[in-house]
Prior knowledge:
This protein is an alpha+beta fold. It folds into two domains: 120 residues, Aminotransferase class 4, branched-chain amino acid transferase, N-terminal domain (D-amino Acid Aminotransferase, Chain A, domain 1, 2-Layer Sandwich); 157 residues, D-amino Acid Aminotransferase, Chain A, domain 2 (Alpha-Beta Barrel), CATH 3.20.10.10. The strands form two sheets. Strands 8, 9, 10, 11, 12, 13, 14, 15 and 16 form a nine-stranded mixed beta sheet that branches. Strands 1, 2, 3, 4, 5, 6 and 7 form a seven-stranded antiparallel beta sheet that branches. Helix 6 packs across helix 7. The chain is globular, with a radius of gyration of 19 Å. The site of 4'-deoxy-4'-aminopyridoxal-5'-phosphate has 14 residues, from helix 6 and strand 14.
Amino acid sequence: xxxxxxxxxxGFIWLDGEFVEWSQARLHVLTHxxxxxxxxxxxxxxxxxxxxxxxxxxxxxxxxxxxxDFVIPFERAELEAASRELLQxxxxxxxxxxxxxxxxxxxxxxxxxxxxxxVAIACWQWPSYFDPAARMAGIRLxxxxxxxxxxxxxxxQAKASGHYQIATLxxxxxxxxxxxxxxxxxxxxHVAEATSANVFFANxxxxxxxxxxxxxxxxxRQTVIELAQALDYQVVERxxxxxxxxxxxxxxxxxxxxxxxxxQSIDQHGYRPGNACRDFIAAYTQTVxx
Length: 290
Ligand code: PMP
């Protein structure tokens, strides 16, 4: 990743219907989305010029906004056309797209019902890091001190900025201790997910993954569950307890950015990335490039 800040790059950003110079895509400091986290966003990957599962991501963006009680003032087709044109204008073929929508600055109080909703889309080069051999080494996770909250404390199905405070805190703690990422438990103490990816475990041809009843049911997670059928793996969605972490042979994370990332350890529990990691990396690579 480049050492210059994300606000310093060249190219265009789509902002409220216009393609503006990257450095001019600015907002006011008294923005509701900044103070009160009334912000939703998406993370999308572009493979060979095509956005993988664009429809699913767009639909989730609108659903997230609805869950946060605001309406995105553009049609889905307009946003998708803007994304395509933006990719071309910025010459991004293998990269990442970041649509974001937030409440503006008309009111700066808890209530913001009449604040204008703004939308922006940015994109940048980010080739998929699919060197399978390097991936197979796996990453190391540390269990986070912060827990995913109960489902009646926030609209957890929304990809909303407010949910990321504990993810950032947990990831910082993991990185400060020499780990790559954190594994978050939920409020009951069940295994939930990583800070921005879902988690799967494998024994032979059976995958185990936590039931997404208080965290994001990721699009990549759903893709892996679909692929499992074709690959003749069984998928068991169930409660997974931390006391079971030593019972699995393999573990991997799934996410738009993470793709399929093998895990070599969680705290003191080691895993050996093997056939399941290899099979799903291969199948996912094929699917996103199809
Ligand atoms: N959980 C969280 C908290 C995330 O931020 C993400 C990334 N969007 C995921 C799971 C995986 O979701 P997806 O596969 O849709 O990218």
